[in-house]
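Need residues for this backbone.
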């Protein structure tokens, strides 16, 4: 948070912990289906809150960035939404076979669902690096023209 335009808010996840949200100035407007975008972001946040050893450490950062043009031209402005959280601890529940109802099957399919919702709105999901101490799920949405 480097400028005076940065904002920091705490938003309460549905029935869960507060999530720190920071937004920098100049984030472009985007065109999207509000219901699909909300569903995608809710899934990402729920996944991060579920996987983080301390849910109070989950943060959301919204900023302006640029994304590659479709035709190889100049980069275009975009909104970037990052969900940041510490890498999950592997639990015995994660190691149990799926058929016994132990490990939640949604962990693998959630990101696929989010990716489809984001792409349907002209955006892109960037998955976290597996070896990073802090995981970052990034959604890029091109600016409205």
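Answer:
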């Amino acid at each position: 948070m480097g400028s005076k335009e940065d904002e920091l808010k705490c938003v309460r996840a549905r029935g869960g912990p507060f999530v720190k949200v920071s937004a920098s100035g100049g984030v472009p407007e985007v065109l999207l289906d509000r219901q699909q975008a909300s569903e995608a972001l809710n899934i990402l946040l729920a996944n991060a809150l579920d996987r983080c050893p301390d849910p109070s450490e989950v943060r959301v950062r919204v900023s302006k960035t640029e994304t590659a043009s479709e035709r190889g031209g100049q980069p275009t402005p975009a909104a970037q939404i990052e969900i940041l959280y510490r890498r999950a601890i592997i639990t015995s529940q994660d190691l149990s076979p799926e058929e016994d109802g132990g490990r939640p099957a949604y962990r693998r399919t959630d990101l696929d669902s989010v990716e489809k919702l984001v792409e349907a709105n002209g955006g892109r999901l960037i998955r976290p690096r597996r070896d990073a101490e802090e995981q970052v799920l990034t959604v890029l949405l091109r600016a409205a023209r």
